[in-house]
Design goal:
Length: about 500
């Protein structure tokens, strides 16, 4: 029996998501090993942010068709074609993944290893292909994977028997008539929207009192009210058993009213993700991890092992593609300019939830500031109280800005409403570059009547707080059916006339 082959490289990169972007012309003089256990392109391209948002868009159109009645438009006969939507998504994505793989395999200085790799010692990796490799320098960008439930039948994805994670649900041939989503984070929120809009009856089970509890409390509370009105939402509830009968599942759920059973055709596990350090056997490589399994790195993305860097979900607690890309650029610079290393900047990491309505945030929540005992002013502006909000007849959108009362530094921004993922960007920029809230609000033009006026007004409210001394006026959590037509209310008509310079 021949001895296993061993090869040495100048640089080995594990993972072809953001890690793949490290390879460029400036590394043409290096012999590079590239290791991938799955499909080229990583989580974002294949099973994460890109395909999910391509499903979100048609789902938005379906919901917006129903909402158009408040604009005086009746849209009848709306029909979604799951197979056509799925084909549109993956006909775009799959060729990119296969094309990226072919491109790397054709590179003269890159050797691709496709297998489930694991460390067998420091700086030594069994690639799962029969070849063991060593290297002078390493970049570990091997990402993470969905977590299962510690319940028989639900420990991992089993698509053939109707148990899915975000990795598999988008590829099903037909939407399940009934689906239970377990979890309360952004993956659960986005798929609840998509699956409900495109035709599944969604039951959403979450152990907490609110969904999206990582968001500012005002946002989380308002979104939970909307979710309760739209879905069969079971809060403070836990799945304790699962039994398959024929082609369906019966889940036993313990909730505030006792134990109940839910019959469903499919289950979507959206209970978090775990880093792939266990699959790599990081301990065998001498690589320390945090309690949650993430690799330990410093601000330069270095692990404690000299010559080994890590980036993205395997080491970051943000689990965001834009964070992985930022860290990739830091690692790439430090690989090519060791004499002048740079550090990752994670001070103002924004995120968005592409639910309906969208959510976006950057910086501290009000609860975090209160816990830290830090003074602040907070102001909440309804989308429906600005002119474009009137055009939208928006009844639920809110923009909350939090500032330091002395320096007027923007401490946090939290939005829920149409295009929030785009609207938040000027606030991210202001925080990143140290621009004061009053300068942003008053020393530039804000196009009227664009929806960005919601940000302008929230900033003005935060820097000019209520003279009564109240530092925060919460947004009333009104369900859509309970909201008055604010665009025609007398106070708003009077305010509109005043702003336009019209008397009487």
């Amino acid at each position: 029996m021949p001895a296993p082959e061993t090869r040495h490289h100048d640089l080995v990169i594990i993972g072809t998501g953001s890690g793949n972007s490290i390879i460029g012309p400036e590394l043409d003089d290096l012999d590079i090993g590239l290791v991938e256990k799955g499909v080229f392109g990583g989580t974002c391209l294949n099973v994460g942010c890109i395909p999910t948002k391509m499903f979100v868009l048609p789902s938005d159109r379906v919901v917006e068709a129903a909402e158009s009645v408040r604009l005086g438009v009746q849209v009848d006969g709306v029909h979604s074609d799951w197979a056509a939507i799925r084909e549109r998504v993956f006909a775009r994505i799959d060729p990119i993944a296969s094309g990226g793989e072919a491109y790397r395999k054709d590179a003269a200085n890159v050797t691709v290893y496709q297998g489930l790799a694991h460390f067998t010692g420091p700086m030594q990796l069994d690639t799962g292909t029969g070849v063991t490799i060593t290297a002078d320098r390493w970049v570990i960008a091997a990402g993470g994977r969905p977590r299962g439930l510690e319940i028989d039948g639900l420990r991992a994805a089993d698509p053939d028997h109707g148990v899915h994670t975000s990795d598999t649900i988008m590829r099903v041939d037909r939407l399940p008539a009934r689906i239970v989503i377990v979890g309360g984070g952004f993956i659960a929120a986005e798929f609840a929207h998509v699956l409900d809009a495109l035709g599944s009856a969604v039951t959403w089970v979450h152990r907490g009192p609110r969904v999206l509890t990582a968001e500012d409390g005002e946002i989380s509370g308002a979104f939970t009210d909307l979710a309760r009105a739209r879905f069969d939402l079971r809060l403070e509830s836990t799945v304790v058993a699962a039994e398959r009968s024929g082609s369906a599942w019966r889940l036993t759920v313990e909730g505030p009213d006792g134990t109940s059973c839910i019959d469903t055709d499919a289950v979507l596990l959206a209970v978090g993700r775990v880093p792939n350090t266990d699959l790599l056997d990081a301990a065998a490589g001498g690589l320390p991890t945090h309690d949650d399994g993430r690799l330990v790195v410093d601000a330069q993305q270095r692990t404690p092992v000299t010559g080994v860097w890590a980036l993205g979900d395997i080491s970051s607690d943000h689990q965001l593609k834009h964070v992985a890309n930022h860290e990739m650029r830091v690692v790439k610079h430090n690989l090519t300019h060791p004499e002048a290393p740079v550090e990752s900047d994670h001070r103002y990491v924004p995120h968005a939830v592409f639910s309906h309505p969208q959510i976006a945030a950057v910086g501290h929540t009000q609860e975090q500031l209160e816990a830290a005992g830090r003074p602040f002013h907070a102001a909440t502006q309804r989308f429906g109280d600005v002119a474009f909000g009137w055009a939208l007849e928006d009844t639920s959108g809110i923009c909350k800005v939090i500032v330091d009362p002395d320096t007027l530094e923007i401490l946090g921004a939290h939005l829920m409403g149409p295009m929030s993922s785009t609207l938040v960007q000027p606030l991210i920029q202001a925080m990143q570059f140290g621009q004061r809230a009053d300068d942003i609000a008053k020393k530039q033009y804000w196009i009227h009547p664009a929806l960005t006026e919601v940000i302008e007004n929230a900033l003005l409210g935060a820097i000019e707080p209520d003279p009564s001394g109240a530092r925060h006026t919460p947004h009333p959590r009104l369900l859509l059916s309970e909201c008055p037509n604010e665009a025609t209310s007398p106070p708003l008509r009077a305010r509109a006339k005043q702003q336009a310079g019209i008397s009487g």
